[in-house]
Known about the structure:
The chain is mostly helical. The protein folds into 2 domains: 58 residues, Arc Repressor Mutant, subunit A (Orthogonal Bundle); 138 residues, Tetracycline Repressor, domain 2, CATH 1.10.357. Helices cover 73% and strands 0% of the residues. The radius of gyration is 19 Å and the shape is globular.
Amino acid sequence: MDLGTTNAPPVDRRVRRSRAALMRAAIDLVSERATTAVPVADIAEAADVSRQVLYQHFGDRDTLLLAAALDLVERELLPSVADESSGASARDRVLVMARHFAEHRAFYRAMLTSPSAYALNRELAGRFLPLNRKNVKRRFGEGLAAQAADDLAGFITGGAAAFYNTWVVEADDPLDPEAFADRFLRAMSALSSNDPEECVR
């Protein structure tokens, strides 16, 4: 799936409207039906465009769904968690993420149990890895070699993704973002603790 064109905003307003309508329709239908196996014709009809327009913009349904997921993250989630001027605590940031995934659970659950799951995780990792690199640098300063800092940021990004994915896919309804944030932060603090007993407190 080539998403290279999704990052460059189209110049034509009609093109932007069509793309946005298709992504909204894809999210709505996948959420409503709890599956990514939504016919292209249904997405096009819900977006009030032709199938040809869908194919022109995205090439196929899987690329559209992946673009829609990334657009959702970039519009609704990343600005909140990446804003360093907000003074938000670590718990606040985890809670923002947990609330986002809980609100859009039906969509993400369908995506994470579909053939697009690997591509989605890879693309999301690419968006969150730079934030975790900053956090590692802030926490350890120059005390870590560059490769070790990159490795640690990758480890945190992958581990956090697995934690969120399991919660979104397997946890009982309704999801509880507050309880999840507490569990997540306990796990993170255990990683940074020198005392193994902290893991069980």
